Amino acid sequence: MKIIFATLPIRPNKPSFPPVGSLVLMKWLRNAGFNDVSLYDIDGNRPSQEEILNHFKRERPDVLGISAVVSTSYKAAKELAAEVRKIREDTVIVLGGPMGASAEIILNRTEVDAVVLGEGERPMVQIAQHLNAGKGIETFIDIPGLAVLNEDNELVNTGYSDPLTSEEIYDYDITDLESSSNIDQYFPTVSKDISRFRQYFRDPRAHEAHRRGKTWTNLITSKGCVAKCTYCHRWAKGQRILSLDEVFRRIDFMIERYNIGFFEIGDENFGADIKWLREFCERLKSYDLLWAVNFRVTRKDPELLDLMIESGCTEICFGLEAGSERMLQVMEKKASLQQNYDAVTWTSERNVFGAVALVIGMPGENNETIGETIEFCKYAQALDPQKNPNQLSCNFAQALPGTPLYEYARHKGIIGRGMDAEEEYLIFISDHNAHDEFTTLNFTDVPTLTCQTWRPRITVEVNYHYVQTHGLNQYHKILMNDLEYYQPAKAESGYYANPLRIIETSKMGDGSPPVSDTPEVPSLFSLIARGKWGLALVTYPKIAYRARHFLLILTILKNLKKFGGVYTIKLLTEWIGFQFKCLFGKKWQEFDYKSLRKMVNNEFGALSGDNPAMENLRKGR
Q1: Cα separation, 232 vs 488, whole angstroms
Q2: Which residues make Cβ contacts (< 8 Å) with residue 185, sequence separation at least 6?
Q3: 56 assigned to some structural domain
Q4: pLDDT class for 249, splitting at 50, 70, 90?
Q5: Is residue 107 in a domain?
Q6: pTM, to two decimals
Q7: Is 90 exceeded by the pLDDT of residue 180?
Q8: Phi-psi group of 37: left, alpha or beta (phi > 0 → left; psi -120 to 50 → alpha; rest → beta)
Q9: Among 65, 289, 428, 462, which one is least packed by beta carbons within 10 Å?
Q10: Which CATH number does the domain housing residue 46 bear?
Q11: For 499, which DSSP code?
Q12: Count of CB atoms situated within 10 Å of the CB of 489
């Protein structure tokens, strides 16, 4: 039996994070006796459409497993399944990953035969065993952990399979990438000229001679998250952590085989077990590796941060998301605004600060909550004069199936009801990044045009505050000496939103380093003439601040250029109507600032016509 797992493109550029989900399933199947298993890393290799078709014409798999780690790749999944069905009609097509929260649409509107719900290790082995025994897909109804259609074309949810133990999670063979992908993509040699490595070179240890030629990789130490943010899809509750012995076995292997000297923790929620984390840092000291990590603000204190730095940590990023206590409640961050302030203060004092990441535009967001977030960002980005205040990544909330935000949008009519409307939405968000303010949905009571001004307003006010605090010369010195600023133009990674995305993609030079501590600032005219409006905004913070009242006009012009007059007039009409309401003292509707999950589950209830078999998928876990 020939089984192929295929990844889907999820960002503009090739990934650096390995396709762990597919690699894990491959090893589980081999351990169960199914050896003809391979990976077709479409995301990593980015083959042409012709190359993809030729690959499946040549291989003609018995089973195709589509790894769908984001719902924004729905269109790609549907097209791949359709092409493979044309090539070989009896190929069994199974889809796994968070996109599975839309199982009803996937099974009815694509060529997918089964959707894996949650962890796929046990269900995939059982699928292979059923097929190997000559059983048809109609018997999949007996396999826990799947969504399938029965003989009457009705959706059947078989529940979840038994969860994996801590000893079973992420059991994969990284060397599978050597035959299926460019292994250097997942273990690149570290260089100051590569944008994703700037987090290491702020630390003097990164410049030590013995680190030259060392590679970088992702290290995974746990699975799951202790939180359940209302915009984030969750298949499983809680978190499972690998044993320290297993983690260091993997580190030893990657040092020996791939010469790693740097790594980034790829966990969703690293360091939840403080005792485990302390021992991890103590053992890591002798390895002389440098590492970076994303961390929860609730899992830190100054002493612990010092221990992490001593063990080689050079950057700590936090899922801050908002500077408004009210919005943190809506998001169900289970963290306080004071903890956010403490986190940025303590990391800045230790020079291990990372980019401030925000999610704006959740239900309840308005000019007041944005103002609160701006005040927080002013504080965070001006703490250290050596920090570029544009290290700020501001995404708009994006409703993904299986989240309270998605269900809120359905109840409010922002996303249409029924399979036709839901599939239309999934196609709409396919290949759409959450940084795009012009294609995001408006979940607030504020006009769309106003929402679209929020991110540039944050950028303008935060940069101006930095200039007021540390001076324009210092601002330009930090901006112009940014590790990426003098690199040639390149495609965006997809990891950052504006304004950091502007710095990442708007390069000015040919790769040559700056010739002085205060390189020449490009003229405003030259930036505008070259169409670099975003870079002009961050390069001239005083002018941008004075012109901030014209952000609405700029937003109108952008909509006019992008979508035409009819759509723009509709937005402008909405904005004018809102202004009339404000004249009578009604700025926005009253909003109950509490967890969006509680609002959806306890107050809204199920929508009429919803399939009961989809209930637990819509709620997440």
Answers
A1: 35
A2: 14, 15, 16, 44
A3: yes
A4: very high
A5: yes
A6: 0.93
A7: yes
A8: beta
A9: 428
A10: 3.40.50.280
A11: B
A12: 10
Instruction: Provide the CA 68 distance to its chain's centre, in angstroms.
Output: 14
d(CA 475, CA 384): 11
Q: Using H for helix, E for strand and C for coil, what is the string for 74-135?
A: HHHHHHHHHHHHHHCCCCEEEEECHHHHHHHHHHHHCCCCEEECCCCHHHHHHHHHHHHCCC
Write the CA distances from 198 to 15, 202, 476, integer angstroms.
Answer: 17, 7, 18
Q: How many CA atoms lie within 13 A of 309 on its CB side?
A: 21
Is the confidence at residue 487, as pLDDT, over 70? no
Distance CA 188, CA 179 (A): 17
563, two tokens = 């979508």
Q: What is the pLDDT of residues 381-440, one digit of tens each?
A: 999 998 899 988 899 999 999 999 999 999 999 999 899 999 999 999 998 877 877 778
| Size of the chain, expressed as the number of residues it contains | 621
Rounded-to-integer distance, Cα 404 and Cα 462, Å: 31
**Does 63 reside within a domain?**
yes
- Domain that includes residue 106, residue range: 3-163
Classify 321 in phi/psi space as left (phi over 0), alpha (psi -120 to 50) or beta.
left
**CA-based torsion, 440, 445, 447, 452: positive or negative:** negative
Total domains present in the chain: 1
Q: If 0-12 CB within 10 Å is exposed, 13-18 middle and 19+ buried, where does residue 84 land?
A: buried
